[in-house]
Amino acid sequence: MKKRNEIFLLVFLIILFFTINYKFIDDALVGFLGNYEDVYVERVIDGDTIVVENNTHVRLLGINTPEKGEKYYEEAKNFLEMIVLNKTVELEYGKEKYDRYRRELAYVIYKNANVNLELVDEGYANFYFPSGKDKYYDNFLKNWEHCLSNNKYLCEKSGDKCAECIELEEFNYKNQEIIFYNKCSFDCDLTEWTIKDEGRKKFSFGNFILEKNNKVRVIVGNETNTENVLYWKGEEYVWTKTGDSLFLRDADGKLVLWESY
User: Fold this and answer.
1) Is 67 known to be catalytic?
2) CATH label of the domain that carries residue 49
3) Among residues 6, 43, 53, 67, which one is catalytic?
């Protein structure tokens, strides 16, 4: 009798084990597969936003493209349209499925290629990770560096004579301060040069001359500018704690330098 009870107990434990593990595996599969979805692209709004079936707006993860009216807006939009418009694509969702505008956040996969990455590689977008770096961050950085070597669109290097003069001496993202230094023996006209983060925040130098062998400090704040201290007004903060980038561009929008952390 004791032996029979032991057999029943063993059988019960085996059944319980497989039941528990089946549920675990099943739940894991549901969670995994839930990160992917096939959709039909009905419209392209701009270089980083599409509309799929059921009027669902999807914001492409990991990138930021020019806004309407900005340089290369049309090129970025046309490139995305060429690849995905009226096509069935796969969406791969990240850590967060929606942004504050209730748009879905996803990587767009077409023919096994990450379209988001292609936009960076071709110079139509810079990388953009406001919620923190994910598993694809290194791929985006690699594609950005490849884009720089090809010197096209957003990656095109400035031809301004002062592009070789201006150095980023300090990038203090904790204190929201930047210092640029003019190492050349002549003054540099930085009129309409801009600083930008990975997202939409942009600062313009306005009408500004950086004298030879001199520095300018740019601080996020609303105080009054002085001779060599300029304030990035209208923003509570620019540089995020989870990582960000600085892009310095000349008056023609060409890239002078960039730095990430």
Assistant:
1) yes
2) 2.40.50.90
3) 67
**198 is known as an active-site residue:** no
Q: Can you give the CATH number for the domain in which 208 is found?
A: 2.60.40.1260
Q: Are residues 162 and 224 in the same domain?
A: yes
DSSP state of 158: P
Options 37, 42, 59, 81, the catalytic residue: 59
Task: Give 179's strand partners.
Answer: 170, 217
Residue 217 is among the residues annotated as catalytic for this protein: no
3-state secondary structure 108-133: EEECCEEHHHHHHHCCCCEEECCCCC
Question: How confident is the model over 41-48, as a mean pLDDT?
Answer: 98
pLDDT the model gives residue 7: 53
Domain that holds residue 86: 36-154
Q: Which two tokens stand for residue 152?
A: 């096209």
The last residue of a domain, from among 92, 120, 154: 154
User: What predicted TM-score, i.e. pTM, was given to this entire model?
Assistant: 0.85
**Number of domain units in the chain:** 2
What's the average model confidence in pLDDT over 225-252? 97
In this predicted model, what pLDDT tens digit does every residue of 115-169 receive, in sequence order? 999 999 999 999 999 999 999 999 999 999 999 999 999 999 999 999 999 999 9
Residues 49 and 129 in one domain: yes
For residue 18, being part of any structural domain is answered with no
Provide, rounded to the nearest whole percent, the portion of the chain with pLDDT above 90. Answer: 86
Q: What is the mean pLDDT of the chain?
A: 91
